[in-house]
């Protein structure tokens, strides 16, 4: 009988942990932008700074903080959504030049990422 109670408790704890993990996840292509946009107004009204840890997403609210994980390398960065986009291909996010540099894909131009809402 004790063994059954322990099993039920373990299952309940596992379910509790699973429901506290981020409720938003998305994987897909990422690109970066900066030149030509630096110093101009982003969709949020903020001035875009290619050296800040920011990103553009089609639908997430401005100010949303994301963990962006490069699927090729496992490297990750934290960015804040302050613009709209990308509007090219199957990409799900446009990262600032600084974020792309930190992830290590700036010279390639694109990579595969997964996003997790913080």
Automatic annotation (TrEMBL):
Gene3D superfamilies: RlpA-like domain. InterPro entries: RlpA, RlpA-like_DPBB, RlpA-like_sf, RplA. Residues 26-114 form the RlpA-like protein double-psi beta-barrel domain. It is an enzyme of class 4 (lyase). Residues 1-25 form the signal peptide. Its EC number is 4.2.2.-. CDD domains: DPBB_RlpA-like. Keywords: Cell wall biogenesis/degradation, Lyase, Signal. The keyword Transcription regulation does not apply. Lytic transglycosylase with a strong preference for naked glycan strands that lack stem peptides. NCBIfam families: rlpA. Belongs to the RlpA family. This is Endolytic peptidoglycan transglycosylase RlpA. It comes from Devosia rhodophyticola. The lineage of its organism: Bacteria, Pseudomonadati, Pseudomonadota, Alphaproteobacteria, Hyphomicrobiales. The gene is rlpA.
């Amino acid at each position: 009988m004790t063994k059954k109670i322990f099993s039920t408790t373990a299952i309940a704890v596992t379910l509790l942990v699973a429901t506290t993990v981020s409720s938003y996840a998305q994987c897909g292509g990422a690109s970066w932008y900066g030149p030509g946009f630096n110093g101009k107004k982003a969709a949020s009204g903020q001035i875009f700074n290619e050296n800040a840890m920011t990103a553009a997403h089609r639908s997430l609210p401005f100010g949303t903080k994301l963990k962006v994980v490069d699927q090729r390398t496992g490297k990750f960065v934290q960015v804040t959504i302050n613009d709209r986009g990308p509007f090219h291909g199957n990409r799900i996010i446009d990262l600032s030049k600084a974020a792309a540099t930190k992830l290590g894909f700036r010279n390639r131009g694109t990579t595969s990422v997964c996003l997790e809402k913080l």
